[in-house]
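Sharing a chain and its predicted structure for anyone who wants a worked example. Both blocks are below, sequence first, tokens second.
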Amino acid sequence: DAWAIDWTATFRSDAGEFWFGDQEEMGFGARVATSLTEKATGRIRSSTGRETARETWGQPADWCDYSGTVGGRKAGIVLMADNPGFRPSFWHNRDYGVFVANPFGLAAMKQGEASRVAVPQGRPFTVRFGAVLHSGDAADPAGWFKAFVARR
């Protein structure tokens, strides 16, 4: 009752340095069906035990699960962030169905001063995220995250 997606992106330039700016809508995200939103039947919870879009917004976490009911059946999606050696992801979660793991926007996520992540010429910069689309009662975000990290 689950499908996993592993997403790794490596950025590099041989032409010169480039950078990632400080944005709120940046990182790895998803938008859930209207019936799964927190405004309908949905619930957001994070690896730190926080719940609701309001409580999880801007907070660091390894994963967030956005679940609810669609067509009378439980369903949802877990987003996971695994960026060792960089920084944690802060969550841009909304009650209307969007949620994003964002390791870039320190100021945008109310976690400090505006940041600029520089990628030096010729040096790779890698970020890694995962998603698990799930249905039924067998959701196991903590277990899925553990398995995701083990596949590094």
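Comments welcome. The mean pLDDT is 94.
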